[in-house]
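User: Please work through this fold.
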Amino acid sequence: MRQCSIVYRENHLLNIDIPPRFNQSFEVKTVKEHQEVTLSCDAHGESPLTVSWKRYQRPIDRSVLSRYVLREHVHPNGLKSQLSIPSVLRADSGLFSCEAVNDYGREEKSIQLIVQAPPESPEGMQLLQVTSRQITFSWTAPSSGNSPITGYIVVYNQSRSECFLIYSACNEV
């Protein structure tokens, strides 16, 4: 909060120029794959304000990323800019930032977007040993989908003519 006290002895004009600012400089947003997400930057400061968006410190080119929708709303204290992704993909996870600029300064806000998705199947499954009561095998852990893997489902069936192994990873997405 800014406070200013003035004692008038003569006729003077007081101008207070306000640089852009955000209420918070960092935010984490978690969403499930294929849901809509909206990243918001509500900049307060002296008009005119402009807001630009970046992903990993590179300007977002909306002609290339046509899935992104940008909305802006001017309000009495500044400008609210929103970047929406109607159906997020795991590849959309990353660090986004918005920068507000006016004649008196600039301010940046960062938003870490985490898109949770079902984990991928394990890779490199190797059957190491089969006995009458036990099967031993190994695999390489898959991508977790940005949430903890809580278990694996393994199905093994051996008949006289065929043998198959089905496996997948699970989490609580």
